[in-house]
Amino acid sequence: MRYVSKTVKILIGIFCLLAALVVYKLFFVKTPPQPEEIKVVEVAEVQPKDIKESVHLIGTVEPKHSTVFFAKSKGAWDPLLKEGELVKKGTLIGQIESFDVEKKYLLSKNAEKIARDQFERASILNKAGYLTKQGFEDKKNAWILAQKESSTTKIDLEKARFYAPFDGVLGVFKARAGMYVDEGAVLVSFYDPSELIVKFEIPSSVVRFINEGQPLEIEGKKYKLTHVQKIVDEETHMCPAYVDIQAEDYVIGSAIGVTLTVREKKGVLVVPFESIFIQNGETAIYRVEGENAILSNVEMGFREKDQVEILSGLNQGDQLILRGQQRLYPGASVKIYDANSPSTSSQALSK
Question: Coil, strand or helix: which one is 175?
Answer without folding.
Answer: coil
